[in-house]
Amino acid sequence: MTDKKIMLTGFRPTGRLHLGHLHGNIMNMLKYQEQYENYFFLVDWHALSTEYQNPQNIKNNLIECAIDLIAMGIDPEITHLYRQSDIVEIPELTLYLSMITPLSWLERCPTYKEQVKELKAKDLSTLGFLSYPILMAADILIINADFVPVGEDQLPHLEMTREIVRRFNGFYGQYFKEPKELLSKATRVIGTDGKKMSKSYGNAIFLSDDFETIKTKIRQMITDPARIHVSDPGHPDVCNVFSFYKLYYQNEDITDVENRCKNGKIGCIKCKDEISKVICDSLKDFQKKRKILENDMNYVYKVLEDGKNYVRSVSLKTIREVREKIGID
Ligand code: TRP
User: Which of 68, 81, 58 is CA-nearest to residue 9?
Assistant: First the structure.
């Protein structure tokens, strides 16, 4: 046991991770890792709430994700890394919370309304999808987490978690604490087509891509459309490739590329290859470690197993106390 505050976050198992995940979320996790006691889990049940018609990739995606996370520096010695579906106490808590959660809270949840409208191809008129925020509340409350690092889109869910806590404590006596968000300053990473980087858009640069692949992907990117000859002055502010420089270069280095472009001193192809190399070099250690893990899958499974055992012991304790609080035990 430590007296560190508890940080917990869930991650959708989308398969191999890309630069969007790295700069959006994982960097933040790594930053906090030493400061808190960390719970980091892969939410395969949440994935099932939208993928229930095609669940066959969830398991494999989860393992790929776990390998990437460990290779990137999520340290199983200080972070409990686990699978949501291994913690069978979560659905029991979900059940208790669902007893006290008014339907209207779920129906008015902005993420729910938005996704039902947007993901037209999927039939999301299910109880499982409607109760997504209750499952998320149970994820958080089973551990009694203090802090939850999330992006802005997840704030309504966290607010609902706090509302559920107040209602639970009101009915059964003070028990859960209200978790607070750690808002990650979301770094929006664009994909090779200029849209938000996402596996489903087919525009992602994966952490495990090799140099040739990264180079080819970046070569396809649109730069400043007004620039035809190398000597034409470029406009980095409208150039998609420049957004990667902003992620990887600091201060003088970035001013230097900016000036070379604006003064027509560097061509787009050279500029693209330069940043491809920088991205690739930054991933070298990760890729080496990933290879080692791929050849030592028993270690990866063991990490998840250890995570499960530890987190289940915490969860069981919560469930016992919750049963007592409600008075059914
Ligand atoms: N809903 C979150 C997302 O889509 C994932 C998630 C599930 C989560 N359970 C959680 C995040 C608990 C933080 C805490 O990104």
Answer: 81
